[in-house]
Amino acid sequence: MAEQRSPVSASVPHSPMVLPTPEGSTLEMDPVEYTLRKRLPRKLPKRRNDVYVNMKTDFKAQLARCQKLLDANREICIHGLGLAINRAINIALQLQTSSQGALQLAANTSTVELIDDLEPEDPDEAGEPLTRTRNNSAIHIKVFYPNP
Questions:
Q1: Rounded to an integer, what distance in angstroms lies between the CA atom of residue 115 and that of residue 144?
Q2: Which alpha helices (H) appear in the chain, and where do they start and end?
């Protein structure tokens, strides 16, 4: 999966950004001189019945994949991060509705730490690359058939 690149200046005003350094001090930087590169999140261990929902893949395709996995397994776990949380919830509810209430849901939320790289636009003129950590919400929904 390709990493997403976007200029920091698109989401940050042109005032200097203050970032903490590992030594405990702060570093002031001009956001126009850096490109933001969002790293992929660390994923949970991939099991056969895990589904990682995203916003790029078609909703119906993700729903069909979940239904196919449920046909082969008694339970699946749907994971959604950030903007994909709503989609993960919608998929789980659609599966429950289509089973006419036979499926049960168990949802857990968590916070995932993400790392962004700030790379200088002009390597000759600007400083060295920086990293920034941020938190993002996640949901993990267990969709299962209860024991008879």
A1: 33
A2: 59-72, 85-98
Residue reference for tokens 């994923």: 43
Best CA proximity match to 89, nearest among 64, 59, 121, 65: 59
Residue whose C-alpha is closest to residue 56's, from 1, 11, 111, 5: 1
pLDDT, tens digit, 9 for 90 and up, residues 78-90: 999 999 999 999 9
Do the Cβ atoms of 122 and 87 come closer than 8 Å?
no
Please state the length of the chain.
Answer: 148
Single-letter residue type at 48:
R
Sequence-separated (6 or more) residues with CB below 8 Å from residue 19: 26, 27, 29, 118, 130, 132
Contact indicator for 118, 129 with CB cutoff of 8 Å: yes
pTM of the model: 0.72
Residues 92-112: pLDDT tens digits? 999 999 999 899 999 999 999
Give the strand pairing for 130-144 and 104-120. Answer: antiparallel
Nearest of 116, 100, 1 to residue 52 by alpha carbon: 1
* Count of Cβ atoms closer than 10 Å to residue 112 Cβ: 16
What CA–CA distance (Å, rounded) separates 22 from 43?
Answer: 25
